[in-house]
Write a structure and sequence with these properties.
With 328 residues, this protein is an alpha/beta fold. The protein has helices at 13-23, 69-73, 93-105, 162-169, 189-194, 206-218, 232-235, 258-264, 284-294; strands at 2-9, 33-35, 38-42, 54-59, 79-82, 85-88, 112-116, 129-133, 138-143, 146-151, 177-180, 198-203, 225-229, 243-248, 265-278, 298-312, 315-326. The strands form 4 sheets. The chain has a 7-stranded mixed β-sheet with strand order 13-12-11-14-15-17-16. Strands 2-3-1-4 form a 4-stranded antiparallel β-sheet, with helices on one face. It has a 4-stranded mixed β-sheet with strand order 5-6-7-8. The longest helix has 13 residues, at 93-105.
């Protein structure tokens, strides 16, 4: 049956599928098909598909044998996948258990099913989890051709940012010097190194750095990544004026590190500044902070203002791509 589908390379399939789930447009009644390394992912409302995806018409067969959690429950539950872990987010323990049981009963492949048991907390940005099925919070997540081993109990990782991370990676040229100020397990650093950049990756979380070093070897880029465990403000002295590109993905408090970013910036440097602000002025506070720290030593040029996703009813997660150019 010819239906609307997103056409995407096979290696990008899981990240794309999750993005379509987040947008509420994944068609569960038709099967995902693959033709010569290209996936065709059925969608319900093509006009609501995020604009970065290619929507085509394709002959996608109806699902006949696969049982989904919705088939078991009688309604469509909310969940996301991270490697072989299925993550749900339910405040009511009984509802969480009901959904977990339905996932286990369905044909979804999952080594563990977990429920968020706390908000992100502390300077290491981790959270508590209730493991409802299985016995591990470790997994290997695949994203745009790269693999990331991680433990969600000890590090922060969001699969929902896959498209955004890929957007940044596509801007990187071989030979660039990239400083990832809050690197985590390497979802920005490793693709940057794979694109030919020399990368310094810093994180306060010792567990994250250990995973990052392992992931650099796993993805065959360890020769291009220097991983440093510590506060980037204390590391900056060794890399002053070094960076061609800075990644500042710490949206709740990146504004506290703008002075450090300017110290790290070379004569010409692009900063990817992530922030969470009220929807009425999502970019103003961050750009004001960058200008205050960089001028008059640098010219400040705003390249892109992008809303990454909604964060709360009145707040959005945004990214401003800004070029700093040293004045003579």
């Amino acid at each position: 049956m010819n239906v609307s589908c997103v056409r995407v390379a096979r290696e990008d399939g899981e990240a794309t599928r999750q993005r379509l789930v987040d947008a509420g447009v994944l068609d569960h009644s038709h099967r995902i098909t693959v033709v010569e390394g290209v996936l065709y992912i059925p969608v319900t409302e093509p006009e609501r598909v995020p604009e970065e995806f290619d929507v085509v018409t394709h002959d996608a067969p109806l699902r006949e044998t696969q049982t989904t959690p919705a088939d078991v429950l009688g309604y469509e539950p909310s969940y996301e996948r991270l490697g072989d872990i299925v993550i749900i987010d339910e405040d009511d323990p009984e509802t969480a258990r009901e959904i977990a049981d339905a996932i286990v009963e369905s044909d979804i492949k999952a080594d563990s099913v977990v429920n968020r048991a706390s908000k992100i907390k502390g300077e290491l940005r981790v959270r508590d989890w209730d493991v409802l099925d299985g016995d591990s919070t470790e997994t290997v997540h695949k994203e745009y051709g790269h693999e990331f081993h991680l433990d969600i109990a000890t590090v922060y990782f969001s699969p929902r940012l896959a498209t955004e991370r890929h957007r940044i990676t596509e801007q990187i040229s071989p030979g660039e010097r990239v400083f990832d100020m809050f690197a985590g397990v390497g979802p920005y650093s490793i693709p940057a190194a794979a694109a030919g950049a020399t990368v310094v990756a810093c994180d306060l979380n010792e567990a994250a750095i250990e995973f990052l070093e392992e992931n650099a070897e796993r993805n065959d880029v360890s020769d291009r990544i220097t991983a440093i465990q510590g506060d980037v403000r204390e590391v900056a002295d060794d890399y002053e004026g070094w960076a061609d590109r800075l990644i500042m993905n710490l949206p709740h408090s990146a504004n506290e590190f703008i002075d450090t970013a300017v110290r790290l910036a070379g004569d010409e440097c692009v900063i990817h500044f992530y922030d969470i602000q009220h929807e009425d002025d999502p970019f103003g506070p961050g750009l004001e902070g960058i200008r205050a720290a960089a001028e008059p030593d640098y010219d400040v040029e705003v390249l892109t203002e992008r809303v990454v996703r909604s964060y709360s009813p009145k707040e959005v997660n945004v990214c401003a791509d800004v070029r700093l150019t040293k004045r003579a």
